[in-house]
Amino acid sequence: MTTFVNRVFSGVQPTGNLHLGNYLGAIKRFVALQHSHECVYCIVDMHAVTTWQDPKELTNNIREVTAAFLAAGIDPNKHIVFNQSQVAEHAELAWLFNCVARMGWLNRMTQFKDKAGKNRENASVGLFSYPNLMAADILLYKATHVPVGEDQKQHLELTRDIAAKFNHDFAGRIAELGLGESYFPITEPIIGGPAARVMSLRDGSRKMSKSDPSDMSRINLTDDPDTIAKKIRKAKTDPEPLPDSIEDLKQRPEADNLIGIYAAINDSDKETVITEFGGKSFSEFKPALAELAVEKLAPINAKIREYMADPASIDAILTNGADKAREIAKNNMGEIRESFGLVGAIK
Ligand code: TYM
Fold it and tell me: What residues are paired with 43 via a beta bridge?
């Protein structure tokens, strides 16, 4: 059995409108993992361009995700924070994984179907092979753990399949080169908690999403306190008081969502929130949620603005992070090239 160093990798696309789902489902958990793991956090700009991005907005959005990471409490001195396009090995490994992954595997990806919509013929080739780039992000660093929201589960299963196929297909070669029994770890997703899938504030059956045309459907990390409070006040609910048990939440998607949001912001769980608010009306619960959300999100919002006022320092942090990431990437990519038998592999 090859043992791997515990390493966390995760990424966020700089496609604008970073929202509460991204924060509670991912970024807040990135922060917590810094205490127990070596972490690599990436602004995945090459994933962003699989759909059209206005170049100026993209540059701004790369900085904004970085600012959000820093504002939330990610420490770029102790861990690695960088944008994907600065480390060319991501693209190189993605190409090799294009040759490991099977068409059938990618054809099953539900996110491609959702994103491509009805006009699949017109989707970019990059959008189709997107999960291979994601596998490359993770495996380039031999990451053992990946914190993500529930919507990324299928992509992580594909990452595991690619790792296992590579380990199997190249087993003899890897052993010959003294690279261990398995080259890549079979990465564990870290998905869970009360905010693994934050839903739209306008429709409890739809995911909170950057691309929802209604801004009222999501709380953006750049929303000011008044806007946050207004969006919670106007969030869709049903006429019943909050239920007394988790079981009763199952038929109440909007109540379930707001309770999950409260629990996640408060580092608690749904049971505890229900103990406090079960039987109370939404008119009592919503102001409490708004107060909590503003208390926790306003400081992050203020810090994002501060960081964004100094883009040169954000760029310096990204360049420095990319230098650190490249060191690991270059070493591993040399070994991967050698595993394939490519001439000129750097050892
Ligand atoms: P992205 O940019 O869509 O989202 C970033 C993170 O936010 C989570 N998330 C949510 N969590 C809970 N509720 C929601 N409504 C919600 N919406 C988004 C996502 O699950 C994600 O964790 N493919 C990835 C980016 C990526 C990546 C990677 C992630 C590229 N390479 C390598 C991990 C490892 C994506 O599009 O995330």
Answer: 12, 83
Question: Any idea which residue has 């070994």 for tokens?
Answer: 335
- Alpha carbon of 85 to ligand 1 centroid (Å): 18
In a domain, 346, yes or no: no
Q: In a mutational test of the pocket of ligand 1, which residue from 33, 152, 212, 265 has the highest number of ligand atoms less than 8 Å from its CB?
A: 152
CB-CB contact of 160 with 189 (8 Å): no
151 lines ligand 1 (CB under 6 A): yes
pTM: 0.97
**153 CA to centre of ligand 1 in angstroms:** 10
Q: Which residue has the tokens 């991501």?
A: 90
Give the model confidence (pLDDT) of 303-312 as tens digits.
999 999 999 9
Q: Within this chain, do residues 46 and 108 fall inside the same structural domain, yes or no?
A: yes
Give the total number of structural domains in the chain. Answer: 2
Tens-place pLDDT, residues 107-140:
999 999 999 999 899 999 999 999 999 999 999 9
Q: Both 187 and 288 in a single domain?
A: no
- Same domain, residue pair 281 and 260: yes
Residue range of the domain that includes 288: 215-306
154 lines ligand 1 (CB under 6 A): no
Instruction: Clarify whether residues 240 and 123 are in a common domain.
Output: no
Catalytic-residue membership of 115: yes
d(CA 253, CA 243): 12
Q: Which CB contacts under 8 angstroms, 24+ apart, belong to 238-244?
A: 241/279, 241/280, 241/281, 241/282, 242/274, 242/277, 242/278, 242/279, 242/280, 242/281, 242/282, 242/285, 243/274, 243/278, 244/274, 244/278, 244/279
Can you tell me the distance from the alpha carbon of 32 to that of 9, in angstroms, rounded to the nearest whole number? 13
Query: Of 153, 165, 210, 286, which one is the catalytic site residue?
Result: 210
| Ligand 1 geometric centre to CA of 204 (Å) | 19
